[in-house]
Amino acid sequence: MLYQPKVDLQTMDWVGVEALMRWENPDRQRIGPDRFIPVAEDSGFIIELGQWAIREACLAAMRWYGEHEKWLTVAVNVSPIQVERSDFVEMVLDTVSQSKMPPRNLEIEITETQFMQHIAGFAPKLQALREHGITVSIDDFGTGYSCLGALQNLPIDCLKIDRCFVTNLDESLVGSEKNRGLFGSIVHLANAMELRTVAEGIETPQQLAIARKLGAEIGQGYYFAKPLEEAALSAAFMAGLDGGKRQQATCPS
Ligand code: C2E
Ligand code: CA
Ligand code: CA
Hints:
Layout: E1 2-8, E2 14-20, E3 23-24, E4 30-31, H1 33-43, H2 46-68, E5 73-77, H3 80-84, H4 88-99, E6 106-111, H5 112-117, H6 119-131, E7 135-141, H7 148-151, E8 158-161, H8 163-167, H9 176-192, E9 196-199, H10 205-213, E10 218-219, H11 230-238, H12 243-250
Parallel strand pairs: 2-5, 5-6, 6-7, 7-8, 8-9, 9-10
Antiparallel strand pairs: 1-2, 1-10, 3-4
Helix pairs in contact: 2-4, 4-6
The structure holds ligand C2E and calcium ion (CA) (2 copies).
């Protein structure tokens, strides 16, 4: 499991991490989730793998707390195949409880498209998790077909604005004025719904500066750190290689 930091765009502190899975083949080559998750979904292995991801992430958060005396929220991606199961809520709560991590430190990420396709079945389950303090994020927001009217009743805490909107913020791009308008509108929409916002895939100081200016609360992306192994994440944090130090030096406010 790799972990990528999420950064508060006002204070530049690390506020959490997203757990991103990798598969190692017998030659020790790493395979990305875009290749193996669909296979695991087809075979049903995703049930075991998905539970492993939650367990691993919670235990990593506990180790992190032991080492740094600071809680980081861990976000875990879930597949609709997992959420569909009748024991999904119980599985998540049991797994968190076994790890001894306070449930408020777990965040569940589900993509907009997958949530919208199963809204009636998934909403009560995600709400049940929220009643235990777990937070819920809509991933890749803006790429699916959200019914805006439904958004205000969804049991969610956060919108993760898809990377394509962040990439398009660069001023050198044709139509960047409109792109910034679009990004700002998504942030306004989230604010009106009292949802937090994460700008995904920030790669450049310019994207960071514009995302901040347009009011995004949290940022994630290669600019701050690529997904890292747990030890490397901890070392980067200790060495002060977090976005805060770099931001102070390079980012216009
Ligand atoms: P995602 O949840 O949207 O995760 C963000 C993806 O963007 C990750 O790819 C991450 O490495 C990449 N990324 C982060 N910052 C940047 C950036 O600045 N620039 C660029 N170009 N890319 C960036 P990754 O790790 O390959 O994961 C791909 C997708 O696989 C994830 O997309 C998620 O939907 C899925 N996935 C990953 N881990 C799990 C898991 O444990 N369970 C399930 N069900 N799905 C997972
Ligand atoms: Ca995600
Ligand atoms: Ca995403």
